[in-house]
Design brief:
This protein is of the alpha/beta class. It is built from 20 helices and 19 strands.
């Protein structure tokens, strides 16, 4: 048998990077795709090839055709999606790929149950597994009824973490601390679909990670979150702990009911004082704390490959406990948030300064590892930290006049030499079409585009009305998804905010010397021009006034 070749799809510097390293160390030829081109993981020495594939788009088959051609040419032994955004498109279109290549996908019914939080809840409830009380709510009044029953804070969750129209955008979970916040959040979240309202369970996040075959747990691991976002979410610092018999039993019963084959992380919350716990969700994929598993001695990626390709089952789940693992850039952000937080609020996952000082002992006693930094493959860690520091410097710099003046000089230089201009924003329905039309009125060759993966959307009514007041007709405008060819064809790419800049850096980092903030035209004001999407008519008027003023300044 020749050298194996595996395609890994993902984006982060946690599970994606850990999988690349695991397979590469084992001598497997690792190829990657569907990863932002600025991802630190792409600097790993274990990557053999990076393939550029168009983004998922519900209105285009280009991404499907490109993947099909890639599979015919490369003859991969396995394709491994490492995130929900990478897995969902293939789950939806599996019949177009499975004749060509073997993929790590779940049966559709199993994926649906794991991906939909209410179906996961129903499964656990049916099996007698402890779950928080919850209700499906479709209106603000139903959310208020849930708050009356469950109390505050009330957790508001979308019924699935990813949606079929936009898998790349993870749906957010919110905690409403009081009624005024609930009114706003519930109105926004129930506008298009019913959501889940759930009682808030105070406890630490705990994950039980497993590899299964036909519902049998073959390998298991458990971690506790040490630092997690103050209102919940993926951890930046966590430790390995012995597997709890109760949590493993609950996990095993769900895996058996699903006849599950593959890897999964089952998330719980546990009250340290009482030992009581509840199920939160099933992550039917690799998980963010995967680097900790590898450091502790359990190589889940290679175990999955051997199971699927060779039928070889692991013989042990032995691993090192009380080992810590930290994602440095995310943990630095956590430290900043923790410093400002109210330590007396029991609903926030805060840590006191004295306990943080004690964590230094973990480094001195060699009980700590890094998600990104390993001596055999150090570059991803340095790139990740550099990007983090640049982001923080931007946040500070944009408040300073000299920084804004520098961006103004850059904008003016690019504008003077530009034969063609591309105006870009997130959705291409509010700011960029207005800016492009105004540029054309000023005599420039201009076009607009967005990065939101759905073309053909119309501008909001308030955008159409505010633009009409300035003589610009957006009624017939329909959004378009920008391509790398569009970006290459432009001499100047005008953007409005940091979100646009980050999207471009991920899509075409080699073209960033053509990018400028339109708001820099007036260094006395904010560098960014905020997105008015979802705002009232006055919000659009203010935004369009700012865009008009900036373009007029460039003309003078």
């Amino acid at each position: 048998m020749g050298k194996r070749r595996i395609l890994v799809l993902g984006e982060d510097s946690q599970s994606f990077l850990t999988i690349i390293r695991s397979l590469g160390r084992a001598g497997i030829e690792v190829h990657v795709a569907w990863c932002p081109l600025d991802s630190p993981a792409l600097t790993s020495r274990y990557i053999k090839a990076i393939h550029h594939v168009p983004a998922f788009n519900t209105d285009s088959t280009e991404w499907i055709l490109t993947f099909q051609q890639l599979f015919r040419e490369q003859h991969f032994d396995l394709v491994v999606p490492t995130s929900d955004s990478a897995a969902l498109p293939f789950q939806l279109h599996r019949q177009q790929f499975e004749p060509l290549v073997r993929m790590v996908l779940l049966p559709d019914d199993v994926y649906r149950i794991c991906a939909n939080k209410d179906e996961t809840w129903e499964l656990a409830h049916r099996l007698g597994i402890s779950v928080p009380r919850q209700a499906i709510v479709a209106s603000v009044q139903e959310a208020l009824d849930a708050a009356a029953a469950f109390g505050y804070p009330l957790v508001l969750k979308p019924r699935a973490s990813s949606n079929e129209r936009d898998p790349a955008t993870r749906q957010k979970v919110f905690k409403a601390e009081k009624e005024v916040e609930l009114l706003s959040r519930a109105a926004e979240m129930t506008a298009h679909a019913a959501i889940l309202a759930q009682e808030n369970f105070i406890g630490i996040g705990v994950g039980v990670e497993v590899l299964c075959k036909d519902g049998r747990v073959l390998m298991s691991f458990q971690h506790e979150r040490v630092h997690e976002p103050l209102r919940g979410g993926g951890s930046s610092y966590r430790k390995s702990v012995p597997v709890s018999a109760d949590l493993l039993d609950a996990t095993a019963r769900m895996m058996h009911a699903l006849e599950y084959t593959g890897v999964a992380m089952v998330e719980f919350k546990q009250d340290r004082a009482t030992g009581r716990w509840v199920l939160i969700e099933i992550n039917a994929r690799f998980w963010g704390s995967l680097a900790l598993c590898a450091a502790a001695g359990l190589d889940f990626p290679m175990a999955l490959v051997k199971l699927l390709l060779d039928g070889e089952e692991p013989t042990s789940s032995t691993y090192r406990t009380v080992l810590y693992c930290r994602h440095w850039s995310r943990d630095l952000q956590w430290f900043l948030c923790n410093l400002r937080a109210d330590k007396s609020d029991p609903t926030l996952q805060t840590r006191r300064f004295s306990s943080l000082l004690l964590e230094s002992v973990n480094i001195l006693t060699l009980k700590e590892r890094s998600d990104t930094l390993v001596l055999s493959d150090p570059r991803p860690a340095w790139v990740d930290l550099k990007l983090f520091l640049k982001e923080k410097l931007f946040r500070v710099g944009k408040m300073l006049k000299p920084f804004r003046a520098h961006h103004r000089s850059r904008l003016q230089r690019l504008y003077r030499g530009a034969g063609s201009v591309l105006v870009l924003c997130h959705g291409n329905i509010c700011r960029s079409p207005f800016g492009a039309d105004m540029l054309q009125r000023l005599g420039k060759t201009a076009a607009s585009g967005g990065v939101y993966p759905k073309a053909g959307r119309r501008s909001p009514d308030n955008a159409i009305a505010a633009a009409a007041e300035k003589g610009i007709d957006l009624a017939a405008h329909r959004s378009s998804l920008v391509t790398r060819d569009d970006l290459r064809a432009a001499d100047l790419i005008l953007i409005f905010d940091r979100r646009n800049w980050l999207a471009l850096r991920a899509l075409a980092p080699e073209l960033m010397d053509r990018v400028a903030y339109l708001g820099a035209a007036d260094p006395s004001r904010s560098l960014e021009i905020a997105d008015p999407f979802g705002g009232d008519l006055d919000a659009f008027r203010r935004c369009y006034d700012r865009i008009e003023d900036a373009l007029n300044r460039l003309q003078s």
